[in-house]
Amino acid sequence: MLKIRKETPLDFDLIDEVTSLAFKNHQKGQLIQALRKNDAFKEELSLVATKNEIVIGYLLLFPTHIINNYRRHTTLLLASMAVMPDRQKQGVGAALLKEAIKQAQKIGLGSIVVSENSEYFFRFGFKNASRWNITMPVSAPGETILALELNRQGFSQVSGTVSVPEEFNSIL
Question: Hey, which of 6, 69, 98, 164 has its CA 20 to 30 A from 45?
Fold first, then answer.
């Protein structure tokens, strides 16, 4: 049976393995390790998916801001989402994302952004962030920024550039 729960220190090596296999490199694992040391890290937004007590998936939402000349709006950045290759397309990622959304709503955050070209996220209610004039500091050609309002005021009077944590720049 699939279970979603907060990560524990005992999961760290397994999370590194999952992300390394899913992304075929160790950079995401290094990024996650660095983000855990950041004061903004929220353990309730760092989730593992387990089956028979074995970690098979991981998701991290990381608090950041959307900044423009006039205001700073707190949001969450989907920093990592990985599923073991032999467990992909079996609902693990969907279960992780649904639980992460619930946890974000529970702690009172109003939005999530993701820098991703995948239409996968549309089924969870994500929309093109361009509708709110939300951008990333640097985008690859053809890259789409997606965003999800977790409540009706999620992006009320919000526009600007997502502030990417320094750890992204130094590791990826």
Answer: 69
